[in-house]
Structure formats: structure tokens, C-alpha cells
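Appendix B. Raw example, untouched.
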Amino acid sequence: MQLPPEDRGPSPRTGYTRAHWEAAADVLLAAVEPYATPDRALYHLPGDHQSWSGRLSDGLEGYARTLLLAAFRRDETVLQRYADGLAAGVSGVWPRIEDRSQPLVEAASIALALRLTRPLLWDRLDDAVRQRAAAWLADALNAEPWPCNWELFPVTVGGFLAETGHEREAAQRAVERGLARIEDWYAGDGWYTDGDGRKYDYYNGWAMHLYPVLHAWLADDEKLLDLYGGRLERHLVDYARLFGGDGAPMHQGRSLTYRFAATAPLWLGALIGRTPLSPGETRRLASGALKYFLDRGAVDAHGLLTLGWHGPDTAVLQGYSGPASPYWASKGFLGLLLPPDHAVWTATEEPGPVERTDAVTPIAPANWLLQSTRADGVIRLHNHGSEDVRYDPYYTRLGYSTVTAPSASYDNSVLVGDDPSRTRIEPLGVGEDWAASRHAAGAGARVTAVVLVRGAVEVRAFLVSGAEPGTSVRATGWAAPEGLRSELLPAVGLDDTLTGVTGEGPTLFVALSRLTGAVDAEPLEETVTVRAEGERELTVLWSGGPGIRIRWHDSGVDVRHTAEG
């Protein structure tokens, strides 16, 4: 992708300015235009991949998601093309919005785009077109959504229709119903689960926060904006720590092909003035993510976003992923709603959290522990609470990072009886340098897992119970990419192949782990001493640091820091 020369002003970090974001949007919009149908109602992007919703729905997705990008770009010439497509689409081309159907998702993007650009697009349409468009969108008000972030799609459509005077009462009911529904999933400290259960990932930012906050902002509803803005502000305290020093978002969760959509909540906080981040830090994190993907082949030689993470990669796709699915990355261009003279665009970029200092950050709602190191810019996510078995392995591994991807060899797992299963995850707590959980494993076992961290080093301890005596247990570590080093050493109950066997009762297994880019790191075995004391107690002594005692019991674990060290 050809962008303007990078800014070489005072201490630039990515060198990206508003001009770079505008140019990137222009390239993406120009690249999809040849794939529009003659009436511009559908965008059939190339490739042989098709979602489970079918070609017609995929074509609508192409229209809706690129329209959202055009709305943020606010180029009147481009918007006119989408106005033509809208007129054709609502005249019988687009599929109807039905219960739990993909058009419900795309209707939200269309409604949001129309609301954001109302004077430039909607208000200039013929009244007959507006009436047909409102009638098509109105089906979203009563269509049954999947019980997850989909509940916010009728909210987004309802907000637009109520504002324009169409189906006002039904629209308002849809808004109230959807907003009430997500209250069931608010877990505190700025975090939602994406529906029932413990589904924590980027949907927190690009869906669960984005739609309610934008609705409140566009409706000028101070009460709602205070509520949702406050949650967003708290969320960003943690969220900013999910971006690596190279700009990479955390490689965890589903729909990763949306890529720099992960930047949407960063811009959103600046847009409404509810963010803990400075303007320069906001632009550093957002521009860093955009640059990260553009530098690594996210856009092909024709200017099209590919289905994957860097380049094409089917491993990160779901059944609902169609050729145009990656264009939900359009949400990452939300920053273009900020005027050119906004501080986010004029301030000098500042280092993000991982670039400033080593840190360990507990995230209580998700029962996650974030471990970041300044020297290599790597962030590791220790997962002791998030689970969605439908999308394994992107939810159920013990660890994720900004530089690794889940591997076919079951990285970051404990295999019981050669079975890597990790289901029914039960959070047992998270502290300043530890996290713990219990889960169902292979061979009928239950595993109570604890991780302790310091710097780049991890102590991973597993108490395995319920398996037949002599059942094999194997621990795995990080699948490191080129340029980084993964280490995994046995400490308790494991041999040099990181394998052990269960005894007559609960059996303890401990390994030392490290993922690092440092070339002169202290030998792993010299960083920490581990001593088992019976079947259910462990003492960990960090070199030159504190001591920690862990005690397993039937209801969970106790983790206690000591003066010993």
C-alpha cells in the first residue's frame, strides 16, 4: 500500500499522521470499487472463500462494511457511489433482515454510516428511497439476534430510525431492549463478556463498547454517555496494555481478521473525551497497529484486505467469515471523525505502556494476567478465565501473546493422557503477579493451575487430580517465532521431555517458562528456585526478589507473599 512519506518531525514513532490514515482509507476504498455490481448495491470481492450465509449476503457485507469506511472518510464523491448502491439495494436487491441472519449485522453498519453522514448522504436522497431504506432497516428492530454482541445491532439501527422519525416507538423499544440486555454481561472494571459465559476478547472494544458509546454520543444523551463513557474509560486502562511494542494487538479471540478494528476503542475514548490516554499515546497505539498490519501483508498487491492476520491465513477464520469480512477493520478509521486540529492528530506520539516499563497487570473480570517487557516489547496474556469452546484454540490455551499464534502442537497447554482438552474453566483469582484457575482435562482429570510471573519469567504449576495413577502429563510452552526464544524447563514432577505421570492422589507438576527477545537474559534456571512441600504446597523464591507460597485446597488455591527471598 502506497502511503505518503512518513513524518520525521520531533521524535516520531510510527511516523503516521492523519494524512497516512486518510491515504490508507482512500486506497482501500478505491481497491474495492471494481468489485461492485453495476448498480453498486453489492460488492463481490475476489477469491473462492464464501461464508455460510452465501454469496448474496457476502455481497451485502462488502457494501456495508466499506460504506462504514466511507462514512469515516467523509469523501462526498465516494459517498455518492454508496448512495446509488443504497437506492438499488433497498429496491429488492438486498436480502431481508431475518432472525439471527447476517443481514442484521450489516444493517447496523449501514445505519451507523447513514447516521454519521446524514447531511452528506441520507438527507440528499429522494424521499421514496429514504422510505424504502427505512422499511428495509426496520426489520432489524424485531429480528431476533444471537445472544451476544448481536443484541447491539437493533440498538444501532433503532437509534438511526428514531432520529429520522421512522418507526419511532418500535425503534426506541429496540434501543432500550438491547441496552438492557448487555447489562447482564457487564462484568465490571470496563469489561463485558460477549454473551453468557466467559467470552473475553476484542469484541469488548469493537462491539460491546463501540455501539453503546456511539449511540449515546450521537443521541447527545448525557446520562447514557456518562455511563458508557465511564466504562470505556476504565476499559482503556487495561486495553492499552494489549498492544505490543511493534504495534501488534494481542493474538487471541475470534474474528482476528478484523485486524486494526482493535484500534476503534482508542479513538472512541478521544472522540468523547473519556480516556486515560494522552493524545500522543492514543495515536501511537492506533497508528502502531495500522502500520504493523500494513507492513506485514494485510493488504495485497491490489489494495484489498486479505482473509487472515498478516497475509492470507485460514486459521483465524470462522464459518461466518466471507470475502469482505476483513472490512470490519473499517472501525479502526473512527479516528477520522476527529477534526484535523484535534490534539490526537497534532501532538507528538508518546510511548505506549509496554514501551515505558516492565509491568504485570491483573485483569480481574476476565481473570487474566498481562506480563509485558519493555526490552523486547512483548506482551503475554495468561488466560485463567476466558473460554469459548466453539472457537478453540483462541480462547482455551493457557497463554497468548502479541508475537505468537496458537500452534497445531498445542502450545501453552497441559496434556493429560495426551489429551489437550481445557474446558469448564473456573477462575480462582488473580493477583499482582499471579493467576489461577481450575479446568476439566483429559482422562477425567481436573487441573488446578497457577502461574507466577516476574520480568519475562513464568512459573507454571499444575495440580492434577482425578486421573488414574500412571496417567501421563505433559506441559508445553510458547511456540516462538523467528527472532524470539522460548524456554521451558522441568522443575517438579516432570522429566527433561516435560512429561510426568500421576500418582495415587493429586499430583503436582511445575515448569519454568520464558518467552523473550533478549539476547543476554540470565539463564532461566538461575532466575527462580522452586521447592515442593508435600502434595499440595509449593514455595517459589525469585532470585533477588520476594518469596511466594502456594497452597492447593479443595475450594481453590491460596497464594501468599513472604519475606523469604
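End of appendix B.
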